[in-house]
Amino acid sequence: FKEREEGEKEMSAWNQLGAVETIYEEECEFSSTSSSPSPSFSSSPPSLHSRVKAWSLRIGRETDILIRVQGICFRLHKDRVASQSSYLKRHLTETSHLTLSPPLNITPEAFAAVAEFCYNGKVQMTPGNVAAIRTAAELLGMTAEDGLSHVAETRFREVVGTNKECASTVLRSCLALLPEAETTASLVSRCIEALVYVDGVRSLNDVMEMQPRDFQTVAESMGRRWEDHDVLYKIVDMYLKEKKIEKVKEEERSGICNSIECSKLSSETLIECVQNPRMALRLVVRAVVVEHLNTRHSMALASAQRERRQRRRRSMTLGEFLHRDAALSERAKLRTTMDCTNGRIGRVEEEVRCMKRVLRECEEKEALRSESFHFVAVEKGGGVKKGERWSASFDGGMRRSSFSVDVPKMSATFGQRFMSGLKNAFRMPNSATT
């Protein structure tokens, strides 16, 4: 316990100085003379040192392997890392010392996260380190169903699908991990796909910073993954335009352009590709050939369809002809009926509008007549004479009108006398009737 307290005091002193609590060391017994200084972590995961020490106390055995990553040494337990990584299990069978060097593109930060996962099954991942952890897990063979590779893959998809800023952060972190980040898990091409889906090719400025060899690797991967190569053509064209053709070797330009399959380009893109001076000559020739073949195929298809229609007409029986003519006649009748119905509906609507207009005018006239009225009164002394009209106003007074109107009663009396004369003229004598 006394040694433990001294160790905790020493670790506390290092924490106050801002040191990182991990078990890797700068000066291990087999390190090279040009060991690089310990890099600073972008995040602060739980102390690997405390977990390794707690595991040693739990099993009563000290660390038994030493793994060196870019000049930094990690003292770990063989059974813990071998149970999670097939690569470490295979290489630590006959040795307890191992150096992870290129072509394994694994950073000390990524390996610290790998070791953390080996001890507690958890690891803190951010948009800045998820690509490095995903690449390291794939390179170390941590591909079990519950292994770090699947955990990092799930986190990668969540981060990339969050928003454009997170996808751009992941893409920038992948540039230092090329080509392994693309060859192991297609991380770069998937980041590009997410950015293109959100904002098109305008948000791919980071892609222009790739070296031609790395960009060729990514372009070939995108060519294998994508069914439509129109977007890939735009990305390649933008890269060659930004990089300047003279800065890209002819063989590199040819390799980049070969990632585009002309058979997966639309007709418009094929025509643009043929006229684009930045494209490699081999791609232009293929585009011309494919466009010619597409034209011949379209012509042959149209001719075949026309011949099928003609054969179908020639092979039709009398019943089929009659059925077709009846269907065409019925369709024409329905169209005529529909046109007539539409015309009738239009006429009815016009009549309704006219009736409404007439009704409105009648209502206005009736309203004007109701404002005033007149009557004829006969008095014995000094009353109203025939042919004169008296009007009554709303104040009760009466005044004599200076103009004359016809009297309906006189017209009625004259008609009656006229009809009576006609009847008398054509009536038979009484003696004749008897």
From TrEMBL:
Membrane topology field: Peripheral membrane protein
Cellular component per GO, a single term: endomembrane system
The keyword Glycoprotein belongs to this UniProt entry's keyword annotation: no
Residue ranges, compositional bias (Low complexity): 30-47
Recorded metabolic or biological pathway in which this protein acts: Protein modification; protein ubiquitination
Main localization, broad class: membrane
Segments crossing the lipid bilayer: none
Pfam families for this protein: BTB, NPH3
Keyword hit for Flavoprotein: no
UniProt domain BTB: residue ranges: 63-127
Region annotation Disordered: where it falls in the sequence: 28-48
UniProt subcellular location: Endomembrane system
Family affiliation: Belongs to the NPH3 family.
Protein name: BTB/POZ domain-containing protein At1g30440 family
Organism: Cajanus cajan (Pigeon pea)
